[in-house]
Amino acid sequence: MTKIIFLDAVGTLFGVRGSVGEIYQQFATKWGVNISPTTVNQAFFQSFKTAPPMAFPGVESAKIPDLEFEWWCQVAAETYKKVGVFEQFSDFKQFFQELYNYFATAAPWFVYPDVKPALTKWQKSGIKLAVLSNFDSRLYPVLTALELAEFFDNVTISTEVGAAKPDSKIFTAALQKCDCTIEETVHIGDSFTADYQGANNVGIKAFWLNRNAPSQPELNQFANLLDCFKFI
Q1: pTM of this prediction?
Q2: Interior/surface letters 18-32, b for 16+ CB within 10 angstroms, e for the rest
Q3: How many CA atoms lie within 13 A of 2 on its CB side?
Q4: What is the pLDDT of residues 33-86, one digit of tens each?
Q5: Are 62 and 159 in contact (CB under 8 A)?
Q6: Strand bridging mode 205-208 / 128-133
Q7: pLDDT for the residue 73
Q8: Where are the domains positioned within the chain?
Q9: First and final CA of the chain: distance in angstroms?
Q10: Under CATH, what is the fold of the domain 18-102?
Q11: Are the C-beta atoms of 185 and 173 separated by less than 8 Å?
Q12: What is the CATH number assigned to the segment(s) 4-15+109-227?
């Protein structure tokens, strides 16, 4: 009997309009920095993958927003250093502050079309829903702006827990927050390592929502998950 579903956020519930590189360059152009969005996008994901986990164990909650900003600012700085244009910014922190604030709105995001119908169906079936994400505290206003917040009982993010998926600590924290057992829980996410393996490693039944596998779209839609799990 599944009583609650944990869902990842970016890449699962919603995605980036266009690409990260395109959005970065929309803002960089205003600062006189012109480079191919494709080049920036590739450099961003290289920098993102090599960055340390976005988690700050033992830190006071009041300090977390500043640490989140600095974490992302470092990723962005490494991105532009990789493509050799970092020094062209007259004030990189100011540039990044504008970009960072933009990603706290609905504008750069889109909700996958299969999401709201599935969330509505699960909710009507009496299943509780919760977000479990390695995103930062901007997730709260983003969920509200995308009209998704109303579906979820609670949200657990890595920066508040002090541990990021696939670390078992963040899954344990989410379970405690929801007051449910492993046997009553399912986790759905788009990362094989962070979501699927991370959940399985603590005994939670998991589903890998691989949205980047167009050859098998029928396996990667929320609408078909009811056939994979017993959500009754």
Answers
A1: 0.91
A2: ebbbebbbeebeeee
A3: 24
A4: 999 999 999 999 999 999 999 999 999 999 999 999 999 999 999 999 999 999
A5: no
A6: unpaired
A7: 98
A8: 4-15+109-227, 18-102
A9: 6
A10: DNA polymerase; domain 1 (1.10.150)
A11: no
A12: 3.40.50.1000
